Amino acid sequence: MSLEAFRTETRAWLEDNCPESMRTPMPADEYPGGGRRAQFKNADTEVWMRRCAEKGFTVPTWPTAYGGAGLDVDQAKILRQEMARIKARAPLVGMGLSMIGPALLEFGTEEQKAEHLPKIASGAIWWCQGYSEPNSGSDLASLQTRAVDDGDEYVINGQKIWTSGADRADWIFCLVRTDPNAPKHNGITFILFDMDQPGVSVKPIKLISGLSPFCETFFEDARALKKNVVGKVNEGWTVAKRLLQYERTMIGGGDGPSTRVSVAEVAKQYVGLEAGKIADPALRQEIIQHAMDDRSFGLTVRRTSEESKSTKAPSFVSSMFKLYGTEQNKLRSELLLKSMGSQMLGWEGNGFDADELDATRAWLRTKANSIEGGTSEVQLNIIAKRVLSLPD
Ligand SMILES: Cc1cc2nc3c(=O)[nH]c(=O)nc-3n(C[C@H](O)[C@H](O)[C@H](O)COP(=O)(O)OP(=O)(O)OC[C@H]3O[C@@H](n4cnc5c(N)ncnc54)[C@H](O)[C@@H]3O)c2cc1C
Questions:
Q1: CATH number at residue 156
Q2: Which among 108, 154, 245, 297 could bridge 112 via Cys, Cβ 3.0 to 4.6 Å?
């Protein structure tokens, strides 16, 4: 099929299948995540997720055998453009889609791919990430969670922290130490296991906002089947690093369809207009600069992903995208705050509408962007060493 024919067909499918309420910006407290315990505030969220999953559009570039649509890079780009055209929300989000899925496509056995990928694509299983520990964050390779060989299984003891969504996750992809005597980067294994078992318990960490986006996760004789080791035993660091590159590319953003409100439109609404322009010239200048930088960043991300068509996998350059993309995202929130003024400082009660309360929470949430997935300082270290080849 020609690309033009593909565009026509995709446009028609989206028109017929994307519910009207899915063509609006996503509220801060809502996301299309699946899993055994999925709860959908808006029934259309589930309808949209299911329709896209049936079409393979939750993971458009994955092979059809694993629940994808088997699109090539150009077709996937057209799909993104057509979704952006109608301001369609992402049909499904989560670490399954953006992190463990791509890692399994690259490192998984055929059996692992056949078992786990279709359940990610359909939104049946929600995943969480067991990397950080109380004493191992930036220095992740110092992790101490221990896995001991027991026949067909490993027995796992230890603690993870900051495990996003662990309280509603079905499965975890986890870094465990299988050889305590090896140098720290060597004795680590990357393993998958079901959270729904007696040896796993989670304790949500309550934030000042009252929300608990992440948890402490405890393993007391938890069990994982050996067939769920991804990559080789004691060589999990290779898989772990690649998964972080997928994570950083995702957090950095830059190339996805944007359903976010435009900062300029918000500023026009709150600051007002003078001769058709945002009334505050200094703010106007900052917003224009941010919009130009955003556009350049998006084009750079796209160019890089098209240049790496042959390898398909991200590289250490993902650290540059993570660093820059998260700073841009934080700046965007600051500009919204400057535009909305005290209307973006509401937490609850009268005097603020739902969008304003969402904006306050979204602004606070952006502060974590430059910490999650590795801090900005860690990205700078990686860029210095791995991209610029500077000495230690
Ligand atoms: C919203 C959010 C969600 C998260 N979700 C998950 C999750 O699902 N799963 C998971 O495993 N983890 C998760 N994390 C944890 C995250 O990966 C860690 O917080 C992060 O890697 C930093 O580790 P740390 O918190 O232990 O900080 P530390 O490593 O203690 O760092 C403290 C400070 O020291 C600086 N620093 C440390 N080492 C260096 C160095 N070598 N050079 C320069 N500066 C340095 C850091 O930049 C930071 O400013 C999440 C974090 C956040 C904020």
A1: 2.40.110.10
A2: 108
Rounded CA separation 123/111 (Å) = 19
pLDDT digits (tens, 9 = 90+) for 215-269: 999 999 999 999 999 999 999 999 999 999 999 988 887 665 466 788 999 999 9
Q: Which atom of ligand 1 is nearest to the CA of 130?
A: 11
Q: What is the CATH number of the domain that holds 310?
A: 1.20.140.10
Catalytic residue among 247, 274, 286, 306: 247
Let me know if residue 108 belongs to a domain: no
- Residues sharing a CB contact under 8 Å with residue 352, sequence separation 6 or more, in sequence order: 343, 346, 360
Q: Does the active-site annotation cover 247?
A: yes
Same domain (yes/no): 197, 161: yes
Q: Which of 375, 378, 383, 385 best tests ligand 1's pocket when mutated (most atoms within 8 Å of CB)?
A: 375
β-partners of residue 217 are 160, 202
Q: Which atom of ligand 1 is nearest to the CA of 365?
A: 1
The one-letter amino acid code at 300 reads T
Average pLDDT, the chain: 93
The answer to whether the CB of 243 falls within 8 A of the CB of 131 is no
pLDDT category at 310 given cuts 50, 70, 90 is: low
β-pairing, 188-194 vs 171-177, is: antiparallel
Same domain, 168 and 279: no
